[in-house]
Amino acid sequence: MTRPAARGGSRASADRLARLLNLVPYLLARPGIEIAEAAGDLGVTERQLREDLELLWVCGLPGYGPGDLIDMAFDGDRVTITYDAGIDRPLRLTPDEALALVVALRMLAETPGVANREAIERALAKIEDAAGDLVGAPVAVRLPGDTRQVEALRSAVEGGKALRITYYTAARDETTERVVDPLRMLMVGGRAYVEAWCRRAEAVRLFRADRIDAITELDEPATVPPQAVPHDLTEGVFRPSPDLPLITLRIGRGERWITEYYPCERVEAGDGDQWLVSLRVTDLGWARRFVLGLGPDVTVVAPVELAEQVRATAAAALDAYAVPAAAPRPGAAADSVPTGVPSGDPAVAARTQ
């Protein structure tokens, strides 16, 4: 079985919602307007406008029965709103609604890389001023992660300064020091990143904020070369490519979460509850640590090199816990001396094939 990743249309949905909210007051002010003229004013095609009108027909107040939904009348190619379901009335927020809106805007303002932050702050100030009695105490929102690191990165991006960072690379399990020229801050999958030109790699790199151990803002300005192009992150941070190593694992029921958390090229049902899973990895060193961190219901099917690395690392770990051989008692048989944990322990074989 295969599991194609879902592709969201969040931006298109947001654009359509804004258009629908604008459509009702627009039509109320122009009863009997021709659809072609309305489409031209709103910057959409006639087909799109008709689809929006069909959607409006099923929008309205809770209850969603006769007298609750928006209604309209058509006369040839002309349209008139006959019932607006109260959408033209000023919005009145309850205390819970006002608080939820303030929290959402606060969180949006704190999100790294968000555009038009000043506009968000202005809208928030207006809402808090108008709904101060409803909201009550001031609201403070903090996103998960190291807030100090995020603030330092944001300051460097906004100030156009170069940075010296100490960064932990999980794929290679190493910590390096780099000088980077920040491009932008962004939030992907609930984590904050800074995208920057890395002078060490001479390429654009993404650095996860919670993996930056130290940050020093340099006096020199960020110098981004013309060939530095931001990554397309619409499909996530990690984008598997055919040139990356392909690994195949046999997993049990308890490890099926892998198929939801990592992009897999192939997922097939095996014997019993087992699945065969194939996925691309940045390198086999990361894959070795990944497999060793999983439960006993995982077997490396391919490549053989990865299976050997896992077996060798697991055997070395078991040898570290081996019980030292005790001195033999006088007259004791040599084969009765304890030898500790054997290197062929089933716990090792469980990870490899």
Please, could you describe this protein's structure?
The chain is an alpha+beta fold. The chain is 34% helix and 24% strand. The protein contains 11 helices and 12 strands. The chain has helices at 10-28, 35-42, 46-56, 95-110, 117-130, 132-135, 147-159, 258-261, 284-292, 304-320, 346-349; strands at 33-34, 71-75, 78-83, 161-169, 174-188, 191-198, 203-208, 212-221, 246-251, 264-269, 275-280, 298-302. The strands form 3 sheets. A 5-stranded antiparallel beta sheet has the order 7-6-5-4-8. The longest helix has 19 residues, at 10-28. Mean pLDDT is 77; it is low at 1-10 and 334-352.
Instruction: Give the helix proportion (percent range).
Output: 25-40%
Unreliable stretches? 1-10, 334-352
Count up the helices.
11
Content of β-strand:
15-25%
Write the layout of secondary structure elements.
Layout: H1 10-28, E1 33-34, H2 35-42, H3 46-56, E2 71-75, E3 78-83, H4 95-110, H5 117-130, H6 132-135, H7 147-159, E4 161-169, E5 174-188, E6 191-198, E7 203-208, E8 212-221, E9 246-251, H8 258-261, E10 264-269, E11 275-280, H9 284-292, E12 298-302, H10 304-320, H11 346-349
Antiparallel strand pairs: 1-3, 2-3, 4-5, 4-8, 5-6, 6-7, 9-11, 9-12, 10-11
Helix pairs in contact: 2-3, 4-5, 9-10
Keywords:
11 helices, four-stranded antiparallel β-sheet, disordered C terminus, extended, 353 residues, alpha+beta
Short description:
The protein is α+β, with helices and mostly antiparallel strands and 353 residues long. It has helices spanning 10-28, 35-42, 46-56, 95-110, 117-130, 132-135, 147-159, 258-261, 284-292, 304-320, 346-349, and strands at 33-34, 71-75, 78-83, 161-169, 174-188, 191-198, 203-208, 212-221, 246-251, 264-269, 275-280, 298-302.
